[in-house]
Amino acid sequence: MLGLMQNRQLLVSSIIDFADKNYGDVEIVSKTDSNQVHRYSYSEATYRIKKLINALKNIGLKKGDKVATLAWNDHRHFELYYAISSMGAILHTINPRLFEEQIIYISNHAEDSILFFDQSFANLVNNISKKLVSVKKYVIMKSEKSDLNIKLDNIISYENFIDHKVKDLDWPNFKEEEACSLCYTSGTTGNPKGVLYSHKSTLLHAWATSMPDTLCISASSVVMPVVPMFHANAWGLVYAAPMTGAKLVLPGSDLDGESIYKIINDEKVTISAGVPTVWLMLLNYMDQNRGSIMSVKNLVIGGSAAPKSMIKEFSDKYNVTVLHAWGMTEMSPLGTVCRLLPKHNDLSIASKFDLKAKQGRAIFGVEMKITDDSGVEMPRDGKSFGNLKVKGPWVAEAYYKEPKKILDEEGWFNTGDVATIDPDGFMQITDRSKDVIKSGGEWISSIDLENIAIGHEKILEACVIGIPDTKWDERPLLLIVQDKKSELTKKEVLDFFVGKVAKWWIPDDVIFLEELPHTATGKLLKSKLRDEFKNHKIV
Ligand code: ADP
Fold first, then answer.
1. pTM across the whole model
2. Ligand 1, residues at Cβ distance < 6 Å
């Protein structure tokens, strides 16, 4: 027997409509491309979103059409998020840090019909526009109707584009399973793959993200996604903030320690989220300038492992609780958050930090397990590590325009991560499956070794890769960037591992580099290093 409840569709438009009606005067503060601070309210944003919908309809945009953005986190990008999805078209956020060839591939693959871009990407757009075969219109997200300093046909400034009277608009209604946005994975191997989110998956994800034991976002919060809006929906925060009535702060393109520090303090940010690199810059800035961030209660760190030393420094020096989080583009992206349980209150401080450095427990809506290579589930004992697999209503079931199945027979998605899960459900990533070092039939976690290395005060960045070894199959090689002022020796570095891991885990050699290569999403590009050092001989 079916229930007798209303079958209201979960649509992105309902979020902004709710914010307009219930938190209409709550602020969205944003740093624009021209480095101005722009302030307005959810109601003013909603008015402009409706103007944007009218403008998009006027030029013939239809349901299901793709509209691309190359933009930082600001109020215009926010308007695009809501206008495009609410009218039934598909928002395609492109990562401007990708190589030009990848951006061309992505845009053509998605068949984008309009491209909105920030002034700071004008050169990029000039370089690639001839190869963007489906794009018919360009909109530059400049303030006001200032001169357009770019040679392209069919281009208009954002403010000119939306300069229409708003006829009152009823939000279109359609099925919640329809697509609202598209984001490509960075494609460290092969071509980038499109993850096509639905209205329903986006709403459920934002809802779960806001819950008290997830990120705890409410009308008392001031939320600042430092994670870009072109990277997995800014981890859902641009939806979670209006859904809960939180003030939203969008930091624009300046993500250095000083800029982030200033905006946090100016706007009294209570929760922010980003990758470890950003928070390292903030810590360095605060260290050098005796700063503090009194308003911040939680910093969400994810995208790659948050080092324990960083979690501890935020807590000990700045009284900020780090929420270590894990997820991926294919998961909208949030999968786990690390919050201790009441039963951990009496743990020693050291044990608490050991737990906080784990990636945490599944949030409601995400199912998780680890298996060996033959698919047999492994015990949740916190020690056995295996392939991490997930299920859930905001996990992808296929890639856009890719016929290949990505789920197994039982509907599990293999994340490509290797992890442990302890009896309380705390998951810890030990590696990417392609990065784990297989030595003498056993697995060595490159991430564990990297975390130990960066715990050394003179090591700025570390990377561990497996290099071929005739006897053991693979052995770990450590590559580090050291503090400019220090002159560490190999022996000093290797001695630092003694007593922290099993002897056979200790890297065979250390290489000192000026810098390490990164992907467009700021992760270590291990494939390049593996290639470069595959013939490295230990001396
Ligand atoms: P891409 O796959 O395109 O590099 P994603 O942002 O989707 O971009 O990357 C997801 C991957 O990032 C995860 O599968 C995992 O390997 C890594 N990752 C994300 N968060 C964490 C974390 N907290 N700790 C360790 N690794 C993480």
1. 0.89
2. 185-186, 232, 302-305, 324-326, 328-329, 333, 359, 415-417, 429, 432, 521, 523
